[in-house]
UniProtKB/TrEMBL annotation:
Keywords: Ribonucleoprotein, Ribosomal protein. GO terms for biological process: translation. Transmembrane segments: none annotated. This is Large ribosomal subunit protein uL15/eL18 domain-containing protein. GO terms for cellular component: cytosolic large ribosomal subunit. Belongs to the eukaryotic ribosomal protein eL18 family. Residues 2-78 form the Large ribosomal subunit protein uL15/eL18 domain. GO terms for molecular function: RNA binding; structural constituent of ribosome.
Length: 83
């Protein structure tokens, strides 16, 4: 994990070199785990993007104005319904 030179410098400065298993079993270490549903990828799962009241992001290949942002999403791009 450490080179001999790095280990010597760390220990000379008063530190200690731990392996991963020593670090995991150390009483002074605490495992940090963030919120799992805060990832951006989670926003793509759920009801389909076209379903009413669905806040799921579409898995679009491109993000331009013509791709999944035009019909029914912009004011002057209706769904082709003639009244």
């Amino acid at each position: 994990m450490f080179t001999e030179i790095a280990r010597a410098r760390i220990e000379k400065a008063g530190g200690q070199c731990l392996t991963f298993d020593q670090l995991a079993l150390s009483p002074h270490s605490e495992r940090m785990l963030g919120p799992k549903n805060a990832r951006e990828a989670v926003r793509h799962f759920g009801p389909a993007p076209g379903v009413p009241h669905s806040y799921t992001k579409p898995c679009a290949r491109f993000k331009g104005r013509k791709f999944e942002r035009a019909r029914g999403r912009r004011n002057n791009r209706g769904l082709g319904i003639s009244y």
